[in-house]
Amino acid sequence: GQMPFGKPTSEPGEKQFNFTEEHLKVFK
Questions:
Q1: Of 14, 18, 22, which Cα lies nearest the Cα of 3?
Q2: What end-to-end distance do the CA atoms of the chain give, in Å?
């Protein structure tokens, strides 16, 4: 899932932390 700034996700295939610009864009 798209959680802000290093929060762990719970969606399959998204076990990594979201630090990409694509994800951070959503929270600007």
A1: 18
A2: 17
Question: Per-residue pLDDT tens for 1-28?
Answer: 555 666 555 565 555 555 666 766 666 5
Where are the chain's structural domains? 1-28
CA distances from 10 to 5, 7, 17 (A): 15, 10, 10
- Here the tokens at position 6 are 């290093």
Instruction: Return the sign of the alpha-carbon dihedral for residues 16, 17, 18, 21.
Output: negative
CB neighbours of 17 closer than 8 A, spacing ≥ 6? 6, 7, 8, 9
